Amino acid sequence: MPRTAFDESRYPYDPYDRLWQSYGDDSSWTNVTTTAAVDVSNISRSDGPSMILQSAATPVNGTRLDFSWSSLEDIAHPPSPSTDNGSGSSSGITYLLLLYFAEVQRLPSDVVRLFDILVDGVAGRQRYAPKYLSAEVVRTTVQGAGQHVVSLVATLDSTLPPILNGLEIYSVQPMAELTTNSRDAKAMMAIREKYELKKNWMGDPCAPKAFAWHGLNCSYSSSDPAWITALNLSSSVLSGAVDLSFGDLKSLQYLDLSNNSLSGSIPDFLAQMPALKLLDLSSNKLSGSIPPDLLQKRQNGSLVLRIGNNANLCDNGSTCQPKSKRSKRILAIATAAPIAVATLLFVAAVLILQRRRNKQDTWMANNARPKSNVFKNRQFTYKDLKLITANFKEEIGQGGFGSVFLGYLEDGSPVAVKMCSKTSSQGDKEFLAEAQHLTRVHHKNLVSLIGYCKDKKHLALVYECMQGGNLEDRLRGEASIAAALTWHERLKIALDSANGL
After folding, report:
1. 486 vs 319, 443, 475, 492, CA distance in Å?
2. Any idea what DSSP says for residue 269?
3. Where does this chain mainly localize (predicted)?
4. Which residues are CB-contacts of 183 (< 8 A; sequence separation ≥ 6)?
């Protein structure tokens, strides 16, 4: 940029946090400035900030403006090892030159500013006239090492000398890696636009490999374009329907859309994605039935499907019953004849009294469970535990034995995986003692031991996962629900209890 009152400018004046500074201290240059804002909307994503373009360099005397550079060091970039010829310059280098122009003076009708833009003596643009308070960028490439000269030369009929508001010079590095295949790249562009994602999603999704888009895993080949195998958009503020573009990612194996605000039904095309192994739709606002093909894949173990915390989603593959029909059914029960209800209450009371004498035996029968040996429970490998916990992604508790992680079995059932930490004082003996103790204690309000892992140095216990809080919270919740029951609903519960339901 030309010399201005600002020695250096960057964010927030530049939205991309580029460092703009004065280009040398040439006594043959002077500045013309404006306090009015410069429109940068028409120079795309590589735009210069408006504040920088409010100042322009122009020759003090004369009709031309020249500047030059001869090596990468001149533009504050070290030479690339792949193009360095050992003498400090790069014979095969290519430069990208960006020149920014905006007229900062309101010119009378009889005054014009016209000039030619030459690079190494070759005219790139002729009779160029900057627009008043509207920025434009002129792009050109320069090949080879050695000195390069850019000249802005006023035309013979120009009444004012040329101006230059800012410039950028980039060294272009060759990219040996193949780009993303066109189908996957197009799908990712559509997903980015659909959900207006604010990420580092610029350029090619998978290439260069070091700058692949955040949340993507790509598979690379020496001869074929890259393809996308995993996409993590968890907690990305997604809303609306699940976009059809996800279905175009034919090599996708893992898709995580959890913890967003996606709504509508689960689309059928998700079941047709041939490589998909894990689909996480949990904690959204999805509704309706789950496509039967997705349920079948979950049942045969070819797909891990997570759909928890979607209040209006049916998990049985059947058509969900509209709320209006349920409301009508409740209304019909509420308007039943009072005499019939009173009669049923009397019958229920008699039956309950008759069964109270066997209350203790009934309670024990309902709560007892057959004893089992810990080694009759399912045995997991450490590899199994990594799979069902998504590599121990979500920690849900801590204990003296170790950390507890949330996991899902092949059928989607949630489990709690309690891992023995390396620092735990408990060893094999304590581990086996805890497992055997758990097999002797059974109650309907206590979680069951599903299995264990004793894989070399890895020890773990796998329990049922009691969602919705601990036992105390759940009992309080049940008490609140019971207090809110109508007397019609209490009647039904009493009849069910009397009939052993």
Report:
1. 29, 29, 19, 10
2. G
3. membrane
4. 248, 250
**Pairing status of strand 55-59 against strand 29-33:** antiparallel
Q: In this structure, is the dihedral angle defined by the CA atoms of residues 289, 290, 291 and 295, taken in order, positive or negative? A: negative
Q: Residues 67, 73, 74, CA angle at the centre, nearest 5°?
A: 10
Return the closest-CA partner of residue 460 out of 387, 376, 379. Answer: 379
Asked if 51 contacts 40 with a C-beta cutoff of 8 angstroms, the reply is: no
Q: What are the binding residues?
A: 418
**pLDDT (tens digit, 9 = 90+) per residue, 188-229?**
999 999 999 878 788 899 988 888 999 999 999 888 899 999
Binding residues for ATP: 418
CA distance 27 to 457: 74
What DSSP state is assigned to residue 133? T
pTM (whole model) above 0.85: no
Dump the DSSP string for 213-264: PTTEEEE--SSS-BEEEEEE-TTS--EESPPGGGGG-TT--EEE--SSEEEE
Name all domains of the chain by residue range, CATH numbers in brackets: 8-172 (2.60.120), 182-314 (3.80.10.10), 374-464 (3.30.200.20)
pLDDT band at 265 (very low <50, low <70, confident <90, very high): very high
178: amino acid identity, one letter: L
Classified as helix, coil or strand, 158 is: coil
What's the pLDDT tens digit per position in 44-94? 555 556 778 899 999 998 899 998 887 655 554 433 333 333 333 445 788
